[in-house]
Amino acid sequence: MNNAIALAAVDLGSNSFRLEIGSYEHHQIHRIEYLKETVRQGNGLDSNRNLTQESMERGWACLARFGERLRGFDPQHVRAVATQTLREAHNRDEFIDRANELLGFPIEVITGEEEAALIYRGVISQLPASDENRLVIDIGGRSTEFVLGQASVVQSLASYRIGSVAWTLRYFPQGHLTPEAFETAEIAARAVLDEALDTFTPGSWDIAYASAGTANAVGDTLSANGFDPGVITRASLDWLQQQLLRAQHIDRIKLEGLKEDRRPVVAGGLSVLRAVFDLLGLERMVVAQGALRMGVLYGLVNDEPSGDIHTASVLGLMQRFGVHSMHARHVAETAQQLWMQLHPQETFPPANLAWAGLLHEVGWRISRSNYHRHSAYILENSNAPGFAPAELAQLGQLVLGHRGKLKKMEAFMHLPANAEQLLCLRLAVVLCNNRRAPDLQGLQLQRNGKQLLLQTAPGWAQRFPLSAQLLREEAEAVGKTDWQLLLQLA
Length: 490
Fold this sequence. Notes:
Layout: E1 5-12, E2 17-25, E3 28-37, H1 53-69, E4 78-82, H2 84-88, H3 92-103, E5 107-109, H4 112-124, E6 133-139, E7 144-150, E8 153-160, H5 164-171, H6 179-193, H7 196-199, E9 207-211, H8 212-224, E10 231-233, H9 234-247, H10 266-280, E11 284-287, H11 292-300, H12 309-320, H13 325-342, H14 351-359, H15 371-380, H16 389-400, H17 416-431, E12 444-448, E13 451-455, H18 460-463, H19 465-478, E14 484-488
Helix pairs in contact: 1-3, 4-11, 5-10, 6-10, 8-10, 9-10, 13-14, 13-17, 14-16, 15-16, 17-19
């Protein structure tokens, strides 16, 4: 990372102020540090749309702390943007003049349209290259942005004055959660967003993404309560609303996965999100990883996000941790070939298997004796653009189980798809034990239920006696699970 550029984005949102510091290298940005403070400036607008003195003081105190962290940064590598609350505030100049001094960098109040464009750029930075039409919806504290695009090209965008903070204040002012309050909030939200149908016509996108605070809060809560990670559905929103109604008051909401700073505004955010689903006829949305700050960071270097974000992240990790790339590729390719023998009807092996092969030794520099455990820890705790936390956890489990006893992998191997990938990876590591590409001529792997049969060409075991012995040890290890590895070593 010696040639990396340090970048920083400051986002003055209506609910929270955020600071994202990233390292830019090889057309990718990796998170170095993330700071967030719940300032709730959106609550601080009085009836004349002036920021109260208290809300300005909260914002200034936060920006003073951010400013200390940013001392020494190149001004060309820092951008601070403010959104809807400061777009609305009549006395914003008073706030910003002092805020500029404390932060040490100028703060821009961007338009809703520019905010939408930056959000889209940030979202696609964390997605693989695709020609699909993508709808991105970002529900903030006081504004909601709609963006429709294909690849890096924005086709349509719009910003509406509606958000989690504003809707909570307006329709749940005393904190009471009633069916009538939710119905009123959703009807009002649909009325504001109704004009979006003229531009964002149902059927004009292939996949819909939800980004930013409300989406992350709802997605995390649903995931913690047994719903599919990273996905929001109409049914799951119904379930969440029922939980809030049971609480009866914002102060009594207790839901696994819902962070304390989101609890006071979740009712308003949920109402807007439900209105979006109804208005656009959505059945599901995917929770996006990137958002406004990442779009700001890529804008600082005037670079489009890497097209194949997953591969770029994997290669970046390999480089950062000094992985022996040739051996890693041999393991990855061998694992994929073995998997394809089990699934000859498939066109491609799972990408996860290739990534696990490439990264199985990412913890090698920490300790060679237990490097698989260190590799798993690194993957499960890395910031790898394009990968959701659940995907990194899955990848970490594959890497953890590629060597050693399999008892630790019992829960993971309960799913046959996981077990197949793990066993293919383990066999690939064995076959590449001399850190050269293995001779797979005549080698065949077949599956019958939970039995794998590995056959070799005549004379193979005599030419590769160490590999043959390691395969016998592997068969013994697999036999201690509810799977079996049968060998016919000729």
